[in-house]
Amino acid sequence: MPDTNLMPIAGHDDPVTTPRDVTPRADGRVDLVGLPQERIRELLEAAGLDVKQAKLRSKQIFHWLYHRGASEFAAMTDISKTMRPWMEERFVLGRPNIIEAQHSTDGTRKWLLQTDDGHDFEMVFIPDADRGTLCVSSQVGCTLNCTFCATGTMRLVRNLTPGEIVGQVMLARDALGEWPKGRMEGLDAAEDAGHYTSDGRLLTNIVMMGMGEPLYNFDNVRDALSLVMDGHGLALSKRRITLSTSGVVPMMARCGEEIGVNLAVSLHAVNKEVRDEIVPINRKYGLAELLQACADYPGASNSRRITFEYVMLRGKNDSDADAHELVRLIKQYDLPAKVNLIPFNPWPGSAYECSEPDRIASFSNIVFEGGISAPVRTPRGRDIDAACGQLKTSAEKKSRADRDREAAAAEAEASA
Ligand code: SAH
Ligand code: SF4
Questions:
Q1: Atom number in ligand 1 closest to CA 389
Q2: Which of 103, 130, 222, 259 is surrounded by the most beta carbons within 10 Å?
């Protein structure tokens, strides 16, 4: 069994992560997905190519892999036919394994995925009239235990590798048939390397809002997103990528500096008492520190606002007084902000109810009247459990059922 890099739930301590760029594979080959060009070059050299060849081939592989979406060496037409089997023996161009793909009546699609070492995670695609958003996971489970979130109840956590993170975006492009079709003339890919535009595309935006806390897996998320944003890679503009954090204050400045994507903050409450309860990381990094880090977020401006996510929990955080306090706080810190009101999605065993529609409307109006945009998010993909915070439940049920079946089959075999 390969090293699965599992972390027990670390309570409210920041988990210690083990940096690792490649998930070990049972067949000994190295998966190149998630690696930058320089690392691919090093691996080619270590496998025996001379310096010049390694440089040339790494550039070709990078282009085919991330810009054109090749999933096998056979597709790399400018690499000689004799060299392709040599590469196949040593390397793979993997995708996360698909356990199940579901399609909602509203067009939302959800994939239950699995790492090579057997951990389930999920990815959701949400099409809208003017955009298509892919909701990407950063961890299997989450070490933080927000009381309204199903992911927070998962027992085991492992950071996803850069390959498993960028692999989700690549898989979505596979499924949507959206890899650029351009030619690759020798190595001059200039006309091919333009930015991936939203014109006529389904997948236009990415949100790091799937399972996990992305700022607790900072290095891997940064490395994966740099491949997504690389003009010679997946070429998606940083303006179309949003990272959501529950408030890992010490990592927020680095997020702005080193990743540079839009920031969303899961605020959910406006005073210490309630936020301590529902977003327990608040006991470690309080509201004042969090809002100051938002005020200091590199790159935030009136044209690139910070999004405050606010889940509507009946009788908990949804009063008119809470709405007024939210406006006051945003003004006090002079934040270029918008608010996203998320109707709570109940899951089996959850202890909350969603606020009534007229309560949500009243809350939204007060924030709007304060001069801050506060739309109510429409829940999507409810029929396939794809809505916010539901990602884990069905996955875990499935995998447990699968495991039970496997165990029963193994037992039957052993006793036969
Ligand atoms: N861990 C990160 C990103 C993943 S959660 C974070 O907390 O920001 C993405 C968003 O979904 C967060 O705002 C989270 O609070 C919200 N969410 C989680 N469970 C939910 C539920 N049951 N109903 C509505 N929103 C939920
Ligand atoms: Fe983790 Fe975010 Fe869920 Fe909180 S809301 S438990 S930080 S995934």
A1: 19
A2: 259
Ligand 2 atom closest to 143 (CA): 1
Tell me if the domain spanning 34-92 has CATH number 1.10.150.530.
Answer: yes
DSSP string for residues in 303-370 = SSPEEEEEEEBTTTT-SHHHHHHHHHHHHHTT--EEEEEEE----TT----BPPHHHHHHHHHHHHHT
What's the Rg (C-alpha) of the chain? 22
- In the chain, count H helices and then E strands: 11, 13
- When the candidates are 3.40.50.2300, 2.60.40.10, 3.40.50.970, 3.20.20.70, the CATH number that belongs to 97-415 is 3.20.20.70
Catalytic residue among 191, 388, 406, 413: 388
Please state the φ and ψ torsions of residue 114, each to the nearest 5 degrees: -140, 140
- The alpha helices in 137-262, defined as continuous H runs, are 162-176, 218-229, 249-254
**Interval between CA 62 and ligand 2 midpoint (Å):** 33
* Residue whose C-alpha is closest to residue 226's, from 162, 167, 168: 162
* Residue list, ligand 1 pocket, CB within 6 Å: 142, 146, 148-149, 209, 213, 244-246, 266, 309, 311, 342, 344-345, 388-389
Residues in the chain where the model's pLDDT stays below 70:
1-24, 182-199, 387-416
Ligand 2, from 137, 213, 390: best to mutate by most atoms within 8 Å of Cβ?
213
Side-chain-side CA neighbours of residue 211 (13 Å): 36
Tell me phi and psi for residue 228, to 5 degrees: -65, -35
For the chain, residues classed under CATH 3.20.20.70 are: 97-415
Q: At what angle do helices 37-46 and 51-62 cross, to 10 degrees?
A: 140
pLDDT at 405: 52
Q: What is the pLDDT of residue 396?
A: 52
Residue nearest ligand 1's atom 12 by CA: 266
* Digit-coded pLDDT (tens) for 127-167: 998 999 999 999 999 999 999 998 888 877 899 999 999 99
* Parts of the chain belonging to CATH 1.10.150.530: 34-92
230/254 Cα distance (integer angstroms): 19
